[in-house]
Amino acid sequence: MTTESPRARAKRTQILTAARTLFLQHGYARTSTDAITEAAGVSKQTLYAYYRGKAQLLSATIAQELDGLDLHGRFQPTPTTHDDLRARLLDFAHAVTGHLLQPDALALLRLLLGEAIHVPELRGALREAFPARLLGVGAHLLQDAHARGLIHAPDPALSARMFVGPVMSYVVLDGLFSPTAPHPPTDATLARLVDLFLLTVHEGAKR
């Protein structure tokens, strides 16, 4: 795997920042690659050297949003006790709801949902950049916990859906579809959500 130079990383960020700003201001369809190159101060040749086009730029925008959560870092090292696992899951729930319920993040998610409905070729890329990424990280954590005998989750992908889905319901119902300013769920609410989820995977471990 080739490691990018600091200059290349800076150029990639420069392009992505310009694209994100324009997408949020004008929408995907009304943002041209010419506008992105002008805002980023690069040539079209340079843009295509880093991103294949607008679809990949939009996918990279949400991936960048999730990078701020440091999801993999939050689950390292692998939990070795039930209390440690509970703390990791609670941290995940806090990070996702706290970050994605911010106004800028919600604006980006609304943009993504709207564009994916009208631009079919975006759907696969956005699925991999956003929900599949959250589910993949969750499944990996639960698979490791199952292997250590902390929980009973023989189908970690399904168990991840059972956990990530309720967490994301706060982003969707209390954020994307809320008529008022969003408020992240309380610590007590998320703690209860995590505890209820763990009941479903602890019961199997006791058998």
Automatic annotation (TrEMBL):
HTH tetR-type domain sequence ranges: 9-69
Supply the Gene3D superfamilies for this chain: Tetracycline Repressor, domain 2
Report the PANTHER family cross-referenced here.
HTH-TYPE TRANSCRIPTIONAL DUAL REGULATOR CECR, HTH-TYPE TRANSCRIPTIONAL REGULATOR RUTR
**Listed GO MF terms:** DNA-binding transcription factor activity; transcription cis-regulatory region binding
Q: Which segments does the entry list as coiled coil? A: none
Keyword list (alphabetical) reads: DNA-binding, Plasmid, Transcription, Transcription regulation
What is this protein's name? TetR/AcrR family transcriptional regulator
Write down the Pfam families for this protein, in alphabetical order: TetR_C_7, TetR_N
Q: Identify the DNA-binding region of this protein by residue numbers.
A: 32-51
